[in-house]
Amino acid sequence: MIHVADAVRDGFKKISITTVDTDVIVIAISVFKDTEAEEIWLAFATGKHFHYIPIHDIEQSLVLFNLGFYQYSKPLQVATLYLHLQDEERKQHGYMECFPRETIVIIIIMATAQPSCDICLNLHVTKSACVWCSECEEAICEDCVQRHRIQKATKNHKTILIEDYQQLPISILNIKLECGDHNQKLDFYCSNHNEPCCTRCVSENHKDCRDLKPLPEVVEGVKSSAAFSDLEDRVKDLSQVIGQTIQEKLNIKSELEVQRNSIISEVEGARKAINIHLDKIQDELLNNLTTNEAQQRDNIDRLIGKLSKMQNSVNEIVYAVEKTKQHASNFQTFLGVNKWIIEIENHESEWKSAQSDQSMATVHLQMRRC
């Protein structure tokens, strides 16, 4: 059911499963809800017993038992309980339509670990089969196999153990011995059309075919034929070649991982080297910036000191002029004015000199590229 879950995750809601194993039916019913599929169909059995089983309908029918008296968890228990219900009681609860008696028989069959005898089932008896007859397309129990071996119509039929039958591939199990169009035994093989055919097929569709042979004659010794031997060799060789190709691709995939890790290491190394270089450039730029800022601060501080000294001297003259105007005589004022004019002229010259100095200009810090 893992494949079913994967299919649902990929967007498929209606799933079909081909099987001859009754355990698959039990498992499918028990986990149907968990798969989140809308419908699950089982293509079950082979030959004339082949049919489709709607797992979703069976599971829904089992759920209906929860409305009243259903307290069982195993399909076989449910089936046993259902078969013991009276028809009227089944109709009253609505189970006749949604959970038919044939479905219950299927559930009882699927709850067993081994396929049941088809002959006994026709007599409404359930017995485990031990062999499979490919010509009758029936599973047979130990009791029935004895009669099968002595009856005139079936004594020459070859049987195989049921365990060996269950190991056959589905494509082989689905091959029918009866004509699908006329329900007659396939007796001939047409090499022109590469198909088996019954007597009616011959008369209706193969009148002009010249290469018609009895089917037993065609299939006789097929397992020891050169074609079958060649097929075995080709299949084994192809399987080996495919296996080698898969291993090569797996090796390439592993090498991709190695190459990826190598490139990642190179990229990380390059990034580390770039980071180291950038850190070095950053340190040099910041050191130059710090030096430049300190130098500009020193220039501004020297100029401010010079201007502050000049301002103090000028302020002293301002104070002297004010007091002289208020209290000094004209003679004192006359002599003082000549002295102060000379001093002011000197200060004006100093200020103009400072004004023309670049240190007076607006300062901009600039980053010098390394």
TrEMBL record:
The keyword Zinc-finger is assigned to this record: yes
Record's keyword terms, sorted: Metal-binding, Zinc, Zinc-finger
Keyword Zinc: yes
Occurrences of domain B box-type (ranges): 115-162
GO MF, any single term: zinc ion binding
InterPro entries: TRIM45/56/19-like (IPR047153), Znf_B-box (IPR000315)
PROSITE patterns: ZF_BBOX
Transmembrane regions listed in the UniProt entry: none
PANTHER family: BONUS, ISOFORM C-RELATED, MEIOTIC P26, ISOFORM F
Protein name: B box-type domain-containing protein
